[in-house]
Recover the amino acids of this structure.
């Protein structure tokens, strides 16, 4: 269990694809259930609480069987570790450039030695908020920091969504709760909201300009 895993699963917990959502929930529940068993000798009360909240098999975690070791695909683990390292480098490059992660960028170019499957390039692109992951000719990794007008607009919308999510949190709303939102803005802001109205609807927001 890690912050990385939970962050990568976040959208799956909210997806409209009920089957994928259920898989994500069941997987996370299984992880927490087994984690409780491993923690039981060291943190007995916390382990008991986690165990009871994740569908206990026995009356108590201290009566459950110790988890058994299963075979796993080491190649996937190694490739994911490489992807996480690239993300770490990309975030450092963003920090050095003073560009927040919420601001989309065109691409990151990675060294040939970092070639990865397409699905992991998608993960890297999502984590770094770039449109494309490109394999370069050199042995270096570098970030395209040029911000076009379209990228700027998208970054401003992400900032608006972050503020909306903060308001939702303050109101104690659940992810599936639909809200009516009145936005007071100028003509430029209205154009921005209209451009990304579909994205707002996906976030359970009915926006009204005022």
């Amino acid at each position: 269990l890690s912050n990385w895993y939970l962050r990568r699963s976040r959208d799956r917990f909210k997806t409209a694809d009920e089957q994928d959502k259920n898989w994500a929930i069941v997987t996370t529940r299984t992880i927490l259930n087994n984690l409780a068993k491993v923690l039981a000798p060291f943190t007995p009360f916390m382990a008991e609480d986690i165990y009871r909240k994740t569908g206990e098999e026995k009356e108590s975690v201290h009566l459950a069987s110790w988890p058994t070791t299963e075979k796993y695909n080491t190649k996937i683990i190694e490739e994911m570790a490489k992807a996480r390292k690239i993300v770490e480098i990309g975030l450092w490059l963003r920090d050095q450039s003073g560009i927040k992660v919420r601001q989309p960028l065109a691409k990151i170019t990675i060294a040939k030695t970092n070639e990865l499957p397409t699905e992991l390039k998608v993960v890297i692109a999502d984590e770094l908020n770039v449109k494309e992951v490109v394999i370069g000719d050199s042995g270096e990794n570098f970030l395209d920091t040029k911000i076009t007008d379209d990228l700027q607009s998208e970054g401003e919308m992400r900032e608006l969504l972050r503020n909306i999510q903060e308001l939702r949190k303050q109101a104690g709303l659940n992810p599936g709760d639909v809200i009516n939102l009145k936005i007071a803005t100028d003509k430029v802001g209205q154009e921005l909201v209209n451009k990304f109205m579909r994205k707002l609807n996906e976030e359970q927001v009915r926006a009204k300009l005022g």
